Amino acid sequence: MRLLTTTSLAALIALPAFAADGELTVFDWAGFEEPTIFQAYVDKHGDNPTFAFYGDDDEAFQKMASGFKADLVHPCSQMVSKYRDAGLIEPWDTSKIPNFDKIDPKFLDSEVFKDAEGIWYIPTDWGATAIAYNSESVPVEDVSTLQVFVDPKYQGRVSLPDSSDDVWALAYLATGTTDWTDVTDEQFAAAADWLRKAHQNVAAYWADPSEQAQLMASGAVDIAWSWNDGVVYLQEDDYPVGFERAPVEGSSTFFCGFVNVKNGPGSEDKAYDFINAWLEPSAGKALLDTIGYGHTSTDAMATIADEPAVKEGLSDVDAPILAQTPNDPAQREKQLAEFEKIKAGF
C-alpha cells in the first residue's frame, strides 16, 4: 500500500517524482502517476512523463503563479477560473483529441470550461467525498449523520482534509446547505460555526489520501472525511473501512481534469498524447482500480459499470449531494481565509 508520512509527502511536493520523459512535465496529485491510467502514452513513447506532485489545489495554483514550470496541471473544476484569470493556460485544440466527444456533457456544462474562445478544460475523473470509518470500532448508526464529526465521543479521533473546498462542502451539508453556488452570509456563518466545532475533534488534517489512510491504519483516528482513494488504499491493506455516502445530511462529489499550460517547456504533441491516453476507454478500469474514481468518458464508464467498486463508491445515493462545481471565486477566497483562521484556532 502506498502510504506517505507527512514528512515524506512534503519532500515530494512540487518536485519530480522521477526524471522520466523530459519532454513532458505533469503537475499532479500524488497517486495519478500510475502508468496503467495513461498506458497508451507509455506504449507510444516508452516512458512515463516526468511528474511533480502537490497536496491541494490552492498550493498548486500558487506554485504555478510563482513560475513553476509544467506542461499540464490537474486541477479540480472550481480552480479552473483562477488559472484562466491569471493567464496561465490556453485552450485545447479538440481536433487533436479524438475521444473528446465521449466526455459526458455534464462535465463541460460551464462557461468557465467552454466558451467562444475554446475549450479550457478536459475533465477526466470524478469521485465522492464522504465518511470513511473504522467499521469495527464505530457503530454504523453514528455515521448516519455528519454530526459525528462534532460528537464529543470522537474528540481527537477525527481527520479532515487540509482542503478548503472539501471541508466547506462538509460544513455546508452539515448545516443544511446543498448548493454552494449561491451562499448567503447566514449560511456561511452557520457553516463556519459548525466547522469550528468540528475542529475541536480533529487529530490531524490530512494533506494527501495516503496520509489519511496512514492515520486510520495506524489507529490514530477512526473517522475521516475522505475521497474514494483513501478508502481504496485502506482496503488494499485489509483495514476494516466503511464508506458512508448517504448520511442524512448528504455527501459531496467533485471532478477534476487537465489544463494546458501556456508556454509550457515541453512538447505540445506529447501533451495531447497524454490526454488522449487518459481518454482511452481502457483508462476507466485502471483509474478505478488504482484510485477508486470514476471516469468522465461515457465509453470508459461503460467498461466498469458492473464493478463492485462503482456500485459501492460511485453509484447514486438516496441523500442530498453537494456538487463541487465552479462557484464564485470571491466566495471561495473568503472560505479559504476563514479555514486558515479555524485551523489556527481562531
From TrEMBL:
Major location category of this protein: periplasm
Please name the InterPro entries in this protein's record. SBP, Sperm_putr-bd
The cellular location(s) given in this protein's UniProt record come to: Periplasm
Listed name of the protein: Extracellular solute-binding protein
- Write the record's keywords in alphabetical order, separated by commas: Periplasm, Signal, Transport
Q: Name one GO cellular component term.
A: periplasmic space
Read off the PANTHER family from this record: SPERMIDINE/PUTRESCINE-BINDING PERIPLASMIC PROTEIN (PTHR30222), SPERMIDINE_PUTRESCINE-BINDING PERIPLASMIC PROTEIN (PTHR30222:SF17)
User: What organism does the UniProt record list as the source?
Assistant: Paracoccus amoyensis
Tell me which positions the record assigns to the signal sequence.
1-19
Name any Gene Ontology BP term.
polyamine transport
Tell me which domain of life the UniProt entry assigns to the organism this sequence originates from: Bacteria
The UniProt GO MF terms for this protein read:
polyamine binding
